[in-house]
Amino acid sequence: MRAWVVRAGENGEREQTALDEGLLLAGWLGLGDLSDTATRNDIRAAVAAAYPDEGPYTVGNWTGQLYRFVREIQPDDLVVLPLKSLLVAVGRVVGDYEYRSDAADGGRHVRRVEWLVTEIDRQTIQSDLLDSMGSLLTIFELSRFGAAERVAALAEGKPDPGRPDADEFAATLTEPAKLYEEVRRRGADAPLTLSIRDFLAVWGVQRRYPAATEQIQSDLAARGLVTVPSFTEGTLDSQIAVLAGGAEPDESGASAVTRLSTSTGLPSAVQDALHTAAGLSGEIAQSALRSAAARLSGHLPDEEAETQTVAYRVSNLESANRMPESVRVGDSLGTAMTIMVLRGYSQLPVLDADGRLRGVVSWESIGRARMADPDADLEAATVRGQEADRSDDLLDWVGTIQQSGYVLVRDHDHKVCGLITASDLTVQFGTRVRPFVLVEEIEQRLRRVVDRCIPLDHIRAVVPRGRASRVHSAANLTFGAYGHLLKVPENWAALGWAIDQQHFLAALEECRQFRNSLMHFSPDPVTDDQLLPAQGLLELLRSVDPHV
Prior knowledge:
Layout: E1 3-6, H1 15-21, E2 23-25, H2 40-50, H3 56-72, E3 78-82, E4 87-93, E5 98-99, E6 109-121, H4 127-133, E7 139-142, H5 147-155, H6 176-186, E8 192-195, H7 196-202, H8 210-223, E9 226-228, E10 239-243, H9 256-260, H10 268-278, H11 282-297, H12 302-305, E11 327-328, H13 333-343, E12 347-351, E13 357-362, H14 363-372, H15 378-381, E14 382-383, E15 387-389, H16 398-404, E16 406-410, E17 416-421, H17 422-453, H18 456-460, H19 479-487, H20 489-495, H21 501-518, H22 528-544
Parallel strand pairs: 1-3, 11-12, 15-16
Antiparallel strand pairs: 1-7, 2-6, 3-4, 4-6, 5-6, 8-10, 9-10, 12-13, 13-14, 16-17
């Protein structure tokens, strides 16, 4: 049994039909019957023919989603439908793919589903599963953290049981003092390892906003602790070790970092970081470790401070930390082609016995090699591949990914550890744009209704006297000023809204705080759960003033 998400349109426009008729509806206006498509290439051809103006990356992305809908989703699989009401529906698939030629365009590609429960409160779903549901794709699998079993529990009316591999001990670290005590209790040779998500939860935060990061770094520095790798790098599910960075050397003169670099059982990312630090020698090593500790604690010497900038790292993308499928030096070209056809890949990395990149084989490189020699082998079809380091600034690679469609990712030992595609960028940055678009619509609606209903002199009354003359409309107000403006009974009455004023103002203040947090850099995406207050306020504004 597998679990999937199938959305009902970008704005939930097919939601009611899905619930009323027991259907999953894939959309894709203008696309014909896919019943006879047996492979990804068949679907790719149908998509390319239906949308001739779309580029290869969009066609590839849509092909993957439709292949899941037509071929991969099976009867008895579970499916999740996020609803506009901010509730969640869960059903069981009961039929194969169907094409309804007599249905309205957008409702022709369907799967039959039995809805088991349609009013699951998102608060009963833990944040990691909600995060997984937050993809902007229409059709995708929930495959991480035991998702299928957890969705099954939700379908039975039970609360989300949480990750099967959840760190129960980490859940006991409810405040920084407990984390400090645990690190001290374990000693230098048995470091505390946990996910960045669990580490942040010790301070009661979910994202690495600058203010939160600065507070955590300051608290760590005060206790002489560091994290390896830095908790500011990697995804929320990356593993880190918390060490006593200032601990004195042992009897052999070795630091905790050096001793731990030869340990087994530590997460690979932690071992990589420890190995890199321990591989340095003498004064260089000590200087590097002091500098690393200072960077992690936020206390850099003045001469080094200017080189430390906030950056969005390659490692912050989930796909950069997921080993891609590959072929090895010495494999046949037929093996590479078979994998590429089966998986719908445009290219595959070619690795040596140590997992290091030796090149890339693609359909283009295969075609060129076969033009020169019909019997060309894998080596002849292998070309140089684009390779980024996990610690590189992601923005430096965006142009390359747009041009070539991908970049491979290497770890500290120069071994391939991930693959970023143009599709990954689209999803990642689309997720990041969504909160800004949502807040912008809220502001636009507030501006328009205030300008229409409230006199200019009342608007100016909530602005400091020295700036009032420069206010010509609601567009000149800060977001926070709307709360002060609508607290005034006369102004509130002018809106004519039949809703509770105090609840609205409370929602407006919560949205103001959310908006302010967006203005500060964080490498972590905003989850659907974190968007709920702003989404709720926007739905309320749309309801009370639908013509704005």
